[in-house]
Amino acid sequence: MQTRSFGRDPHQVSLLGFGAQRIVDEHDCTEEEAIAIIRRAVEAGVNYFDTAPSYSDGQSETRVGLGLKGLRDKVWIATKTGGRTRDLALKDLEGSLKRLQTDYVNEWRMHNIMQPHDLEAIFAKGGALEALIEAKEQGLIRKISISGHTDPRLLAEAIRRYPFDSALVALSALDHFIYSFAHDFVPQAVEKGVAVIGMKVMGLGKLAPWTEQALRYTWSLPVTTSILGVSKMEELEADLAAADRFVPMNDIERVELFQEIMPLVRPDVLRWKAREWMAGEWYQLPELKW
Fold it and tell me: What are the transmembrane regions (predicted)?
């Protein structure tokens, strides 16, 4: 498994990251299957695991904790908080540590910064950033992170205000065409040594006919890792095989992919860039005060 350094930190994480949102009953994955999938991933060299307390009311975190039992020193665990205040965020972390069966997480991120008021809330007095800083000082977390699906300008502003260790952002080939994190965030992040983690790589499954090209597109960007959600062992094995075969995509291959997938650049497909999840209308970029 190819590895890359984690931004400013030389620690190596696997090119293929494990997105744990789907190892849950909601996606027809049993606890037994989830544990087997996780342990197979570690065996194959995957050492980056991403989860959140909001994924199936904590079931994802619980299963990550069970699957990684006895393997904690081999892996990097990232989880999230949707809380915008210090107190709500710390409450999230307390529950996450319990479900994950660990006394620390490697990376804790403020999740889904979508509107200017989200950004202002986390930076305000008593905001969530205070919780992350406190948790790091107490040894409960190692790295401070942020995530966004929709508006790259907000995350670009966030890393201007604070030296975040990492950012989880939407970097599918479809995202290339509208509100592009690849264009409007990644260069600044790389310059500042912020580790970039790619998500939405398969466009909620819409890029399945172009699986190999979709993975190569995102992995060819200056990302630390990209997280892929799986709910079946065969899905994991396919991702592992693609990671093993990976070679960077050249410009001609990229253009050929864009020509084929361009009709999918719609708000009902890129739901994370829609006004609302099921709206079918594009998110409208708000006017920013900074």
Answer: none
